[in-house]
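Late entry, written up from scratch paper. The run itself happened at the end of the previous shift, but nothing got recorded in the book at the time, so transcribing now.
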Amino acid sequence: MDAVQKANSGHPGMPMGMADVSTILFKYFLKFNPKNPSWINRDRFVLSAGHGSMLLYSLLYLTGYKSIRLKDIKNFRQIGSICAGHPEYVKNSGIETTTGPLGQGISNAVGFALAEEILKEKIGKDIINHKTYVIAGDGCLMEGISHEAMSLAGHLRLKNLVLLFDNNSISIDGPTSLAVSDNFKKRFQSYGWDYIEIDGHKENEIFKALKKVQNAKKPSVISCKTKIGYGSPNKSGKASSHGSPLGDEEISLVRKELGWNYKPFEIPKNVMKIWREIGKKGEKIEYKWNKIYNPKKSKINKYFKNDFVKSVINEKKMALKDNKSLASRKSSELIISSLVEKSNTLIGGSADLAGSNNTKTKNHKIVTPGNFEGNYIHYGVREHAMCGIMNGLALHSKLIPYGGTFLIFSDYCKPSIRLSAMMKQQVIYVMTHDSIGLGEDGPTHQPVEQLSGLRSIPNLNVFRPADRSETIECWEHALKSLKTPSILCLTRQNLSPIRNKFSQTNRCSFGAYEVLRTNKKVNLTILASGSEVNLAIETSHKLAKDKIYSKVISVPCMELFEAQSINYKEKILNETKLKISIEAGSTDCWKRYVGDSGMTFGIDEFGKSAPYKDVFKKFGLIVSNIEKKTKKLFKN
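Output as recorded:
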């Protein structure tokens, strides 16, 4: 309450309303150790209702986490303070995930709970056995992602997942009855969850409910009927306590109401002692756990050890040996199949498109309800939840999740992708049917602006490989990118090989590199990505017949190219004055490379439903058109 007032910004109501529930949870049930915030077998505590962030910061400070100082709380929502307006993930801090977009924390929590079940199966329940608790509000449950994530959690019977529903019936606009008349009990029961209703301000009811869920056989929701802004004489139970400070006068009244005779940010020594004792309990719990863990340390280390190098080398050699035209989605399947043999931690999946995304291989085993020994998840038609769940899988430990859908549906996934990038998590998105090249499904399924939009997200590598060799290298880079999520944009249609020599060097890691030059001295640079690299090569050879000599640059990843040295970039871009780009998508992100004197060949309108070669011809992405217009550049 005092932090929000000092910042003159924030949400005091939810932290005040859920303080009782959180106190009982932390005092009697939550397994954690402030001295080792990354202990792998700790219970996970997620605040999906991220606007109530002061609740989380207060709990972490009171229980003794070194990451949250009183100084930080006093500087809530200010530059330099870990206490941001909504929780932002910081490793080893106690802040488990970045939340704020409502419902995201629920999907992350499902990912945490799923990771716990997978590791428990692989490593042993004596080593891994913990709960995931998530606080969610009315707003979280209104968002569609909550339905997707909770439906899957119920299907998989994630029994160690507990959702604490802050059922205060208030949102920003006022009472939730303005927009919602859901029967929450029936809703959760239809998902296959246990549902418990309590008064969120009665200690005995809170305790009994939390005690009951310790032995649950399926996911549990505890609906905590609370008063938002609890303790505020004039604002409790009202929207006025939701998104703005209470005001000095009202805060003074709250102090009287609660019998709290202390100045702002002052914690009495006896109260602080009790809280710090709560924090210290976890040290003893982890100490006992370590007695079991230490003899089995080698087993755990072995599980988390991956050997991707041999798979990558073997697959690159095989690609050159086969020398076949292959869709990059199929190329991806081949490397995934090899990787899965050498990896325990690669956890695959798809949003009901396994056969189209080629994400499932003969080396996968399916995760099924109550059986978590597999390494492949059928997410169903739940793209958004899939991506949020993958964030949870990545945050939990050292699991490397990848999941597939069509590139056009990245629009459903974007909020979760953005959070992957913000949290610097190694999440791999396999997005196929990457252009008008998918053909007959038409403009609703043909991505045009998606590549450009995804490339605008900071700390995200967007890969568009041109053949099997590049697909392997893009996978290799994604597996080495420990702090950056990756998107692999892959074709439905076959691609001819663009390489004929083996190199252990990952050329795609440069972001852009030369694949062809028709003369020692060239006067044109042709930049292209994905399926259009083959088109660029054909065009280059055609232009050479008219003594217009060029070099073709494959650009599998603009972000990696931008990270190269100035000298390298100048070598790629500045050898010729004239440059053209070819990509079957929006042209805006290529204009910085071709400049005012160059030309971009792409699509700045929606596609058409027809066989893919006819669609490419319709939009001028054919050799004859590109050759003709390029020649005009030299005449001007």
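The chain has a mean pLDDT of 97.
(Scratch paper discarded after transcription.)
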